[in-house]
Amino acid sequence: MKSQFKRLTSLALSLSLALGISLPAWASSDTSVDNKVNFSTDVIYQIVTDRFADGDQANNPAGDAFSGDRSNLKLYFGGDWQGIIDKINDGYLTGMGVTALWISQPVENITSVIKYSGVNNTSYHGYWARDFKQTNDAFGDFVDFQNLIDTAHANNIKVVIDFAPNHTSPADRDNPGFAENGALYDNGALLGTYSNDSAGLFHHNGGTDFSTIEDGIYKNLYDLADINHNNNTIDAYFKTAIDLWLDMGVDGIRFDAVKHMPFGWQKSFVSSIYGGDHPVFTFGEWYLGTDQIDGDNIKFANESGMNLLDFEYAQEVREVFRDKTETMKDLYTVLASTESQYDHINNMVTFIDNHDMDRFQVAGAGTRATEQALTLTLTSRGVPAIYYGTEQYMTGDGDPNNRAMMTSFNTGTTAYKVIQTLAPLRKSNPAIAYGTTTERWVNNDVLIFERKFGSSVALVAINRSTSASYPISGLLSSLPAGTYSDELGGLLNGNSITVGSSGAVTNFTLAAGGTAVWEYTASETSPAIGNVGPTMGQPGNTVTIDGRGFGGTAGTVYFGTTAVAGSGIVSWEDTQIKVLVPNVTAGKPGVSVKTSSGTASNTFTSFNVLTDDQVTVRFLVNQAATDYGTNVYLVGNVAELGSWDPDEAVGPMYNQVIAKYPTWYYDVSVPAGKKLEFKFIKSNGSTVTWEGGGNHTYTTPASGVGTVTVDWQN
Ligand code: NOJ
Ligand code: NOJ
Ligand code: CA
Ligand code: CA
Q1: Of 325, 399, 445, 605, most Cβ neighbours within 10 A?
Q2: Active-site residue among 285, 445, 546, 691?
Q3: What start and end residues bound the annotated signal peptide (predicted)?
Q4: What pTM value is reported for the model?
Q5: pLDDT tens across 75-98, in order?
């Protein structure tokens, strides 16, 4: 019944597209499974592939690497892509309403069993790669992988792969016999090993102590053989490897350990994905601890072109609902501060637990906190990612206890129903996908917040206390006058509300543990931009603008004051415009839309226009002595080098690992095949000292990576 309905839906969609009939909200292009550059309307389900479902026992590893009774959590358990296919086909995943799956890194991993202090360890998690152009046999072969993609797509589900180009596998330089010596293969051909690395594929700087960003990038993360991205073989290898997966239809990439790879290389890498045949949504993992706010993390999210997992959000939700160490007032403070810190807040990937944290559900505790944290996440800004088994209230502190085999596939749990009920709202109501967030009522236990986009509104109330109910008076909302029933249908003790013509909500009592979602979806007549994806691109790239009220007839898109119409518009629908980035000055010109009848939209301010194709160049400057507290920065004649504005200079540069003070270095994403002019500056945050002499010049490579070294000019 369900799958028949789905088929009818896509038939209706193609028919109505062909006939030019306007579509109901649930069938908008911005919400389609084909929209690979916008995940704001999606709900991601994170699967540790080995731990979800074993659909093919024939591919299970033999011998020491396998735990048949699933008692040894560091060994393979047998989960695979066929198992995920089975769980799509039997309705477990589609029934929950999730619209994207994030699966373990799919690439070939080492197969050896590694002993640490006498304990066996394996690559069941997928983070110990050997060949990024082959599959992990325990998960399946390329036929299985293609089947997974095709089955997912046929069920309106996207597939996100984990990808970890920071490292291969554990290695010990002084002991080539340890594990597989970090070996890296190119589709079966050995490129090099960690202890025999004549091609310079790896860093050999020891392990990081995590003391600085630089230390974490250029030294090994634990004992993992650290990739040297300032190497032409490596750069070309990863670009062709990711293309292979994208060609198969992958819809998104979760980049592992982005704090530990040169930022310039990552920016040029994702810009090549965005400019290639298959631009997709990307998000990185940069771990933040409880209450940690990190300016470098924020800068990465705003400038790299990649989005990030929202650790600030996750840690706060855990404090408020799981550990009860902070209040609902603190929660709103974080919702508000993150909205001002992060330029692309609707692209941040939100979550309440994952494979690197204690599971959210506390053993022996009630389940309401989990259900409320899910409700919050499903209705908040950002793309929700739900960790497998959270809907089954799985427990487990720390790695590997947080990665047990999926315990059951019960479609009747309250958490499963919460996801099932709320996930579709992300597609039907743009206030949930794209809206701003406003506090409407708060005390230590209760938060009532509103999401608003155009005239669409969602109002969400959560009382985390399971013993106290609260009278709610003086509540205002943007909902039009009327009576609204709880979208959750009272599943979490929510009530309906009545709204007067001024937006005043009639007083009511929010029950203990009460959680309700009230919403109104407007049919929008004025244009409103919700998302621009990707958030970075060069002239000629196709960019997707999602929102509402663009109208059925093509109008004009503006990049700053530069108008794009006619052949610069690839497609124009009421909820989605595809446009070619025009030849404008690189930077952030602001993107806006004017309908064919001349009504202007809001401006999306953070789209970053690049000068051209990007390559990574390592800039080194020798003899740049500074006073304590003063750092060296790079500035030059292109937007990527700050267009001569010292406030936009690149850096602070590094001076400890690859080269040492008074030499400074930095890996930068710059336009390919261009003659750059640049200088270095010294700055202590207030006083800037420019280098003397003429500008340095350097012509960047047309592809691959480059290095330029100069002496500081007094
Ligand atoms: C972060 C991943 O999430 C974690 O599970 C993994 O062990 C490390 N990166 C190294 O790949
Ligand atoms: C910007 C100029 O364009 C550049 O050539 C010069 O070196 C610096 N300012 C410092 O004066
Ligand atoms: Ca299997
Ligand atoms: Ca690294």
Answers
A1: 445
A2: 285
A3: 1-27
A4: 0.95
A5: 999 999 999 999 999 999 999 999
